[in-house]
Amino acid sequence: xxxxxxxxxxxxxxxxxRAYFGVPESAARAEDxxxxxxxxxxxxxxxxxxxxxxxxxxxxxLDHDWRPEWRVALLxxxxxxxxxxxxxxVVPDTLTPQVPVILDVLAAVGITTxxxxxxxxxxxxxxxxxxxxxxxxxxxGDRDLFxxxxxxxxxxxxxxxxxxxxxEDCDDAAVQGRYGVPAARYADxxxxxxxxxxxxxxxxxxxxxxxxxxxxxYGDLAGILAALDDPRSGFxxxxxxxxxxxxxxxxxxPKVVRVALDVPLPELPTALPSAPVDPDGLLELAxxxxxxxSTRRLVDALADRG
Length: 306
Prior knowledge:
Strand order of the largest sheet: 3-2-1-4-5-6
Number of helices: 13
Strand content: 5-15%
CATH topology of the largest domain: Rossmann fold
Shape: elongated
Structural class: alpha/beta
Radius of gyration: 21 Å
CATH superfamily of the largest domain: 5'-nuclease
Mean pLDDT: 94
CATH class of the largest domain: Alpha Beta
Distance between the termini: 19 Å
CATH architecture of the largest domain: 3-Layer(aba) Sandwich
Low-confidence stretches: none
Order of helices and strands: EHHEHHEHEEEHHHHHHHH
């Protein structure tokens, strides 16, 4: 059987935030002066991904709820530092208006977008990674998505921590080499280590190396907590005290970190077109927002896959 091209699952917020901070506003503006740096950078990322990965399917996941209440109920500190005084996420003023433009361009091209009420883009990506026919490649700069890597399906993470030009194609061995734990244990590892960017405090005094060592020895977080109750388990007294003091946190943190795999999603058209589905609409968007170069690169990448 011929190798099937991958479906590319795009973490849209991760990429457009990265594009916003990676492309200066002064270098990308519409004729009226409106910044379109996030739009231009995002479209160029997609063009590069399509040209280099040659997918036949693509879905762009959206954040319909960047801080779901069910996660906050478990851990009130979750993303609390990113909460604006008036509510909602702290987002640069000049980024917010660019997101609808991105969505308009994707619609004109014919690339599917999807989000779900009460869930983050990560959860949408997780659900698609286990429901869409493999192979699957998830594109994100979010470390939490290392947990989706699954060599058996296969699901890989194309990690853009250093940008799309320096893409890291991660299988389970890559996750193991990077963190010392398999992808299936990444959520437990992250709960132990903590993640200030998401408001996860972690266990004070437990860093990456100690977290990896604990998981290697005891298998998972449940095994670590069970061993705490066994005086013969070999914990150093100081480490035992740290873990015991964090027991309540460790009971809920993995549920917060774990990506949902059961988000209710509609049937989605995932086929990647070879030409825009609305060429006139795309031309008008390119003219209005000064995106001729980026839209041309994206259209060319679609056409060149054959």
